[in-house]
């Protein structure tokens, strides 16, 4: 025993940290023993049977990898698998992108979307003259933490209007218009999380003009390419508009959702520069960011992605499976909307079918969410976001009952 550490532990003064607002929902769900429990918290795809899905094309790619004796487990380079990086840049910027053809893009493999955002943030904190980053309100809860811990100063811009349940476009333009020259702006490439509200292409064009006129630096978070519309190209339009004007930008990509590779942690960070020699110097500095964090990225997930992206037959199979996931989510939106209408649930629920991507931002408040969890064993984030992919035609009636009870009993 030591007088400074009464119970003998040097860690006895550690206070318990709260659960994560999103991943903690699954922790609570797992503890619930009710047979009717439903997890609509985490944005992870489930089948109509409520099961996680490994895409058939991913299974095929894994078989090829396993059966190829030339595959070894050597370390990848610091920047990751070269082939994967090239193909990832092509996927987001387009096969005919001049920026790629002119070798103006530095791409490194990252630990899924989160890790790629973090590399970009660390790079900007070290090498970019402006340390202020603007993020939308609301946004994915991890964004402010990633940027703050990397040493950037986080400010916000208006994005969502709870009154219209749509984009606060005027507020967005005002706030970005008032941002200091050179400030970084985090943009959700498509399927904005948590609101499911994206700018139209015309609005994107206005955002682009404003940002370029003020020298604001776009940092795209692309976690849902293909999940918004079902089309990989359509969902990359926002990013491609900014690259087409010849200006610079960053893009963090995740293969968690669109290839269902969640736990494999596969992603990429690309920095589009004005010239090839700049891109090559940027890449050299990205290596210095990565090396002391985790040295070099894992090989398996990136090999799966590269196998699929480089083979036209497998690529096509992937787009069909991706479209099927997106379509199932859209059909769940319609079913939930119809079921609430049939129940005569008070309120206008048309936003359920208007919103895009994995989530519906229901408008339910914290008390209503707590009530639904307690009385109906339905788990969701406290901001009222539900992951549509967690629903099936079997569970929609249960959710509709819960929403109906919540809005009629709790103001
Ligand atoms: N960016 C956005 C906008 C996201 O929604 C997510 C995941 C990520 C990046 C990071 O995903 P990676 O798995 O690192 O590629 N958001 C999901 C998943 C759970 C979580 O919070 O990580 C969600 O439910 O919001």
TrEMBL record:
MF term (GO), any: pyridoxal phosphate binding
Assigned keywords, A-Z: Aminotransferase, Pyridoxal phosphate, Transferase
Cellular compartments per GO CC: mitochondrion
Protein's UniProt keywords contain Transferase: yes
A Pfam family that the UniProt record links to this protein: Aminotran_1_2
CDD domains according to UniProt: AAT_like (cd00609)
Reactions accelerated catalytically: L-aspartate + 2-oxoglutarate = oxaloacetate + L-glutamate
UniProt signal peptide: none
InterPro entries to which the protein is assigned, alphabetical: Aminotransferase_I/II_large (IPR004839), Asp_trans (IPR000796), NHTrfase_class1_PyrdxlP-BS (IPR004838), PyrdxlP-dep_Trfase (IPR015424), PyrdxlP-dep_Trfase_major (IPR015421), PyrdxlP-dep_Trfase_small (IPR015422)
Enzyme class: transferase
Gene Ontology annotations of biological process type: amino acid metabolic process
Note: In eukaryotes there are cytoplasmic, mitochondrial and chloroplastic isozymes.
Subunit structure: Homodimer.
Family: Belongs to the class-I pyridoxal-phosphate-dependent aminotransferase family.
Name of the featured protein: Aspartate aminotransferase
Natural source organism: Vitis vinifera
Gene coding for it: AATC_1
């Amino acid at each position: 025993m030591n007088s400074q550490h009464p119970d003998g532990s040097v860690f006895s003064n550690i206070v318990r940290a709260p659960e994560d607002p999103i991943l903690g929902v699954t922790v609570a769900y797992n503890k619930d023993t009710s047979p009717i429990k439903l997890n609509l918290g985490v944005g992870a795809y489930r089948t109509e049977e409520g099961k996680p899905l490994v895409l058939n094309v991913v299974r095929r790619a894994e078989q090829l990898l396993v059966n190829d004796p030339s595959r070894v487990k050597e370390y990848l380079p610091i920047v990751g698998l070269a082939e994967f990086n090239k193909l990832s840049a092509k996927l987001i910027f387009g096969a005919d992108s001049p920026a790629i053809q002119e070798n103006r893009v530095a791409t490194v493999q990252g630990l899924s979307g989160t890790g790629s955002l973090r590399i970009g943030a660390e790079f900007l904190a070290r090498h970019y003259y402006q340390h202020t980053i603007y993020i939308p309100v609301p946004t994915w809860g991890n964004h402010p933490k990633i940027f703050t811990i990397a040493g950037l100063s986080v400010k916000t811009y208006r994005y969502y209007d709870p009154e219209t349940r749509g984009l606060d476009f005027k507020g967005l333009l005002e706030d970005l218009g008032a941002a200091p020259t050179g400030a970084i702006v985090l943009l959700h490439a498509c399927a904005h999380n948590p609101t499911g509200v994206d700018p139209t292409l015309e609005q994107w064009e206005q955002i682009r003009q404003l940002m370029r006129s003020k020298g604001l630096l776009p940092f795209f978070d692309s976690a849902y390419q293909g999940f918004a519309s079902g089309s990989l190209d359509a969902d990359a339009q926002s990013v491609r508009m900014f690259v087409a004007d010849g200006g610079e930008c960053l893009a963090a990509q995740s293969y968690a959702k669109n290839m269902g590779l969640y736990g494999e942690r596969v992603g990429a960070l690309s920095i589009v520069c004005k010239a090839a020699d700049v891109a090559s110097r940027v890449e050299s500095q990205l290596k210095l960011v990565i090396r002391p964090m985790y040295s070099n990225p894992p090989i398996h997930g990136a090999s799966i992605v590269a196998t699929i992206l480089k083979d036209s037959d497998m690529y096509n199979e992937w787009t069909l499976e991706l479209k099927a996931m997106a379509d199932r989510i859209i059909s769940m939106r319609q079913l939930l909307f119809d079921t609430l209408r049939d129940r005569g649930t008070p309120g206008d629920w048309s936003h359920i079918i208007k919103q895009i991507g994995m989530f519906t931002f229901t408008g339910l408040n914290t008390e209503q969410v707590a009530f639904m969890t307690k009385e109906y064993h339905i788990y969701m984030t406290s901001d009222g976001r539900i992951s549509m992919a967690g629903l099936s035609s079997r569970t929609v009636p249960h959710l509709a009952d819960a929403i109906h009870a919540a809005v009629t009993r709790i103001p």
